[in-house]
Amino acid sequence: MQELDEKILRQVIKPRPQESFKGTFGKVLLVGGNHQYGGAIIMAATAAVYAGAGLVTVACDPLNVTALHTQLPEAMVIDFHDQTALTKLVAQVDTVVIGPGLGTEAASLAVLQTVFAQTKAAQTVVIDGSAITLLAEHRLPLSAGQLIFTPHQMEWQRLSGLAIADQTPTANQAAQAKLGGMVLVKKHHTEIYASTGSWRLPIGSAAQAVGGMGDTLAGMIGGFCAQFRTDVTQAALAATYAHSAIADQLAENQYVVLPHQISHALPAFMKKVAQSGPDHQIGFMN
Amino acid sequence: MQELDEKILRQVIKPRPQESFKGTFGKVLLVGGNHQYGGAIIMAATAAVYAGAGLVTVACDPLNVTALHTQLPEAMVIDFHDQTALTKLVAQVDTVVIGPGLGTEAASLAVLQTVFAQTKAAQTVVIDGSAITLLAEHRLPLSAGQLIFTPHQMEWQRLSGLAIADQTPTANQAAQAKLGGMVLVKKHHTEIYASTGSWRLPIGSAAQAVGGMGDTLAGMIGGFCAQFRTDVTQAALAATYAHSAIADQLAENQYVVLPHQISHALPAFMKKVAQSGPDHQIGFMN
Amino acid sequence: MQELDEKILRQVIKPRPQESFKGTFGKVLLVGGNHQYGGAIIMAATAAVYAGAGLVTVACDPLNVTALHTQLPEAMVIDFHDQTALTKLVAQVDTVVIGPGLGTEAASLAVLQTVFAQTKAAQTVVIDGSAITLLAEHRLPLSAGQLIFTPHQMEWQRLSGLAIADQTPTANQAAQAKLGGMVLVKKHHTEIYASTGSWRLPIGSAAQAVGGMGDTLAGMIGGFCAQFRTDVTQAALAATYAHSAIADQLAENQYVVLPHQISHALPAFMKKVAQSGPDHQIGFMN
Amino acid sequence: MQELDEKILRQVIKPRPQESFKGTFGKVLLVGGNHQYGGAIIMAATAAVYAGAGLVTVACDPLNVTALHTQLPEAMVIDFHDQTALTKLVAQVDTVVIGPGLGTEAASLAVLQTVFAQTKAAQTVVIDGSAITLLAEHRLPLSAGQLIFTPHQMEWQRLSGLAIADQTPTANQAAQAKLGGMVLVKKHHTEIYASTGSWRLPIGSAAQAVGGMGDTLAGMIGGFCAQFRTDVTQAALAATYAHSAIADQLAENQYVVLPHQISHALPAFMKKVAQSGPDHQIGFMN
C-alpha cells in the first residue's frame, strides 16, 4: 500500500490548454437529492463546479431546484423522476456521480436502475452513499463504465460483506478485485483500492467529521474525473488528496470544517498546484 | 450563585480525537419552524452545525425546506407533520432541540407531544421558545431525558408561575428543583439553575437584543450537548458562555450583532479555545 | 431649509442601554412584496433588521417567504392576504412600513386598506412606493399615526398634485402642511418637509441610482423609528442621512452601490457613530 | 480586424452625471430561464444589475422566482408565460436580453415570438443561447431593434450556416452583413462583427470555460447597452472587454473563474475605469 503525497496533485492538475471550450473540461451529471437529503446533492454539485468541470447538471427531486439554483446558478437541473430526460442526459455526459442524498426508497431505486442501465464503458461512474446501500441491499448488476465506489466503513461492510473489524488491506484488496472498479474506503486515513494498486491517505483530521463531507468528496471526484479524464484513477486520487489537504489548511483555524468551504477553496488551491514547480513544496492558500 | 468565566470553555472544548467519525460528534434533531417562524429553526440548525455536531436533522414545516437547504446544505430535513418519520428520528439521535419557531397552534402541540412521547432518559432535550409556552399552557407531562429549558423571563413566568419581579435566585432555584432539569433564564446577565448549582453569566450586551438570538443559543446548546455529551450540564454552560463571548467580540465593531454571525464565528472561536493553554487568557478572534 | 449634517447621527444613535431586551428596540411590521416585486420587501426588511430593530415581521405574498427567510432568517413572516393575521399584527408593533413592492392591483389595495384601518396615533407609519401611488389614485383617507411619506418626485407629483417642475421648497412645504406627517422627496439632494421644519440632504450620488435603493431607505427609516422612537422626526432624518453617508463611502470604490450593501454596512456604521465624540469628525468605515 | 484594447473601457465608462435617477441608467428586460436552466437567467440578470442598469426585470419560468430574488432582490420578475405582462414590459424598456436558459421547447418559442413581435427600432435586443438556436431552427423573422447576437461557434454555425472550420473573418463578416446587427462569435479570442467594423478580443483564458460564462456576458452587454446607450456598439465592445479583463484578474489566483464572481467584481472594476486618466495604465482590482 502506497502513501499518497502531494505529487499526485501536480501530476493531475496542469495549466489548462488555451485552445479549449466548456466541453474540453467535461460534462458531469450528479444524481441524488431526494425530499429529505437535498443538501447532499447540492454540496456534491458545488464541488464539481468549483473543481472546474465544464458543464454540470443535477438530477434530483424537484423540491431541491430552488436551493440548488440559489447556491449554484452554474448548474442545470432535471427532475430525477423523469426517466426520459434522465436517460437522455446520461448519454451526453462524461461522468456520472450517483448517490449523494439519493435515499433508499422505491423511487431512489428506480432512478439508480435507470442510470445503471444507460452508462457506457467509456464513462466514469462515481457511486456514493445511498447508491452503495441500494446496490448492496438489492444485489443489483453493476453499471457499465469505470466505476469508483466511495463507501464509508459501514457502507463498505454492506457492499463487500466484510465486517468493519475484518476490513484489512488484504481483505479489502480481494473484495475490490471481486467487485471491479476502484474503491475508496472513507475513514481516518482513507484507503483506496484499484486493480493497479492501493493507496493510503496520510492527511485529514477529525475537523472533517461533519455531515456532507463525503458528498463533497464525491462531487470533487466527479469534477476531477470529467476534467482530467485521460487517467481516471489518477484523477480520483488527486481529488481525494486535495479534499483533505484543503480541509487540513482550513482546520488550522477552525474546530470544524464545513463541506462547502472546501469547494469554495478549490479554485485558489488548484491554481497554486498548477503554478507550483515540481521540486518545491506547495504552500497552499498562502 | 457562581459567576461563569471562560474556564468553562476550556473544560469542555478539547481537541478532537483523531480516531473518530461523524457519529462521534453526536446526532441532533431540531424541531420547530412553522409557516410563520421558519427563520428560527434555520438559525438554530445553523448554530448546531457550525458548533460541530456530527449529523443534524431538522423537522419543520415543509415550507421552510428550501430556505434551510440554501443556507445549510449540511442539514437533513423531514416534514414535522409526518409522525412516523418524526418518531423514528427521535429514536436515532443523541439530542433534541424543540421549540424555535414551533408556534403554539394545534399542529405545533401535536408535534411537541409526539416528540415528548418518544424521548428516552439517555437523551438530552433542549426546550425553547414556543415549546415552553405550550408546556405551560397545556400543563403537559414532561419529556423523558436530560431536560434543558431556555426561557426568557416572560416564558419563565409562564412555566414557573413566578412573575418577573419575583424571579429572584432563591425563587428560581426552588422552581427549578420542582421542575427538574436545567433552566437558563435569558436576560441581561442570564442565570442558569440546575440541581448541582447555579451560575450567572457576567458577559453579553444589548447588541444581542435582536430576534433570533435565542434560537441561535438553543441550537448551540444542542450542538454542544451532542458533541460533548459526557457532561451535559458543562456543555450547556460552555455553549451559553461562548454565545455571549462571541457576541461581545463582534459588538466591539457592531451596533447590533446578527444571530447568524455568531454561528459563523463558532469554528474559529472553538479552535482558539481548543488550542489555548490552561493558564493563559484566550484572545478570541485575533 | 436647513442642511442636514452628520450631527443628526450622533443626536439619534446612542450607546444602547444595557438593561434592555428585544422589545426595547421596537417592533416593525413591513408590508409589501407582491408576486412581481418580492425583492423590494426583502430589501426593506433587511434594512430594518440590520438597523437594529428588535423584532421584524414581514407581511407579503407567500411566494416570497423562502427568498426572505434565506436572506434574513431573523424576520418572521405572514401572508398579507390573511386579513385576520395582518390586523392582529398591526396592533402589536410600534412601526409599520407599507409599500415596498406592494403593487397597485386590487389585492394590494385591500392590504393597504386593512393596515390603514388599524393603525393608531401612537404608531409610526412609513408610506412608500406603491402605497403612495394607491393613496393618490384612490384618494384614500389617511392612516392614523405619525405618517412618513417617502415619494420620489413622480410619486410626489401624484400625491401632492405638484408637477415635478413646480416642486419648489415653498410649494412642497405647503403641500406637506395640507397632507400632514413628514414628507421625504427623494431626488438628487433629497428634501424633507415636516411641520417643524424642512431639511436638505447635501450628500449622496448617482451611484445610488439603482432599483431597490428606496426600499432600503424605507426599511431603515422603519428600523430607526422603532428603535429611537422618542423623536420620530429625528430618527427619520438620521436614517436618511445614514443611508447616503454609507452609500458615499461605498461609492469611493464602486461605480454603483447595491442596496443590500448599505444594509449590511449598518451595524459597523452605527457603532462608529455611537462611539464618536461630539466634537470630532466621524471617519466612517475606517 | 482591429484588436480591442482597454481604451474601449475609458471611452464608454464615464463618471455618472450627478443629476440623474434610475431611468437615466436604463431599463433592461431579461427573458429566459425555463424549468431546466434557471441559473442562466439568474446569472445574466446579476450581471445586468451589478453593471449598473437602473431597473432590471426578469421574465422567466415562475419556478425560478425564489432563487432569483434570493440572489438578486434588486430585480423584478414576471412569469414569461404571461403574454400580456410580457408584451407590456417589452414596451417599457430600453434593452432586451433574450435567450439565457430559455430552452428550445414550444413554450420557449412562443416567448421568443412574443418578444420579437414587440420590440421597436430604438431598442437594443441581445440575442443569446437558446434564442439563437430557435432562430436558426425555425428561420424566424428577426426582431426590430439594434440586434446583438452572442453565439458560440456551434450556435454561429446554426445561425450563419458556416461550419466551424469555415468561420474565417471574411466569411463571418459576410454573414454578419447578410444578417444585420452585431455578432459576437464567442471562442478563445472572441471576434466581433458589425457593419462598422470588426474586432478581436486579445484577452481571456481557459479559466473562463465554465457553464454560465456566456449568460453573464449577455447580461453585462445588456446592462452596458441600457446605461451607455448613446453608442450601443461601443457599449457592447466595452462589456465584452470588461468581462474578460475581470476574468483575467481573477484567474491570476484561481484555476477556474465562476461567472457570478465577474458580476460581483463589476462595481469596483468600473469605478477604477471611470477614475483612470486617459494616458495611464489601469491597474484593475488593485
TrEMBL record, chains A, B, C, D:
Stretches assigned to the YjeF C-terminal domain: 5-273
Family annotation (InterPro entries): Carbohydrate_kinase_pred_CS (IPR017953), CARKD (IPR000631), Ribokinase-like (IPR029056)
Keyword NADP: yes
One Pfam family it belongs to: Carb_kinase
Residues where (6S)-NADPHX binds: 40, 101, 152, 215
Broad enzyme group: lyase
GO molecular function, one term: ATP binding
EC numbers on record: 4.2.1.136
One biological process term in Gene Ontology: metabolite repair
Reaction catalysed by this enzyme: (6S)-NADPHX + ADP = AMP + phosphate + NADPH + H(+); (6S)-NADHX + ADP = AMP + phosphate + NADH + H(+)
Record's keyword terms, sorted: ATP-binding, Lyase, NAD, NADP, Nucleotide-binding
Cofactor names: Mg(2+)
Residues binding AMP, per UniProt: 214
Role played: Catalyzes the dehydration of the S-form of NAD(P)HX at the expense of ADP, which is converted to AMP. Together with NAD(P)HX epimerase, which catalyzes the epimerization of the S- and R-forms, the enzyme allows the repair of both epimers of NAD(P)HX, a damaged form of NAD(P)H that is a result of enzymatic or heat-dependent hydration.
Family assignment from sequence similarity: Belongs to the NnrD/CARKD family.
Subunit structure: Homotetramer.
Listed name of the protein: ADP-dependent (S)-NAD(P)H-hydrate dehydratase
Organism field: Limosilactobacillus ingluviei
